[in-house]
Amino acid sequence: xxxxxxxxxxxxxxxxRSAQETAMTETxxxxxxxxxxxxxxxxxxxxxxxxxxxxxxxxxxxxPKLIAHSSAADTFAEMGWGDAGMYAIGxxxxxxxxxxxxxVLQSAAATALSALMVxxxxxxxxxxxxxxxxxxxxxMVPLLIVARARRGxxxxxxxxxxARLRRG
Length: 168
Known about the structure:
This protein is mainly α. It is 85% helix and 0% strand.
């Protein structure tokens, strides 16, 4: 009797085990759970890149210009752009950095900062014999990645701008 009961348990256990293995195989083989995790990881990585860009443009690039630090002031004086040029570039960089944090403006901000980096590249080549010309090009890579990845917000921005223009 005990052997029959044991045999019955084993049969039920193997049936349950087989069903569990099938269920586990179906859930682990299914691509659905990995896609959201991967997408979430990419979104987190992209947000991290954006935060690094914000910190660079706001703190390392715009701040020295806006407080007229000697390193920035001397550079703009050497180019003949003076304080007005220095402050204008600093304001553009700070504005772009802040806009990188606003969802509807992220793609446009990354594109605008990329254009600013094209100008910085040209300035480095023409005024400074290409001494730091690689820096703007290196910064353009993550900026263009952000611009492309966040391009879905562009339609929302267009819609908001159209509505604003109609009102007033």
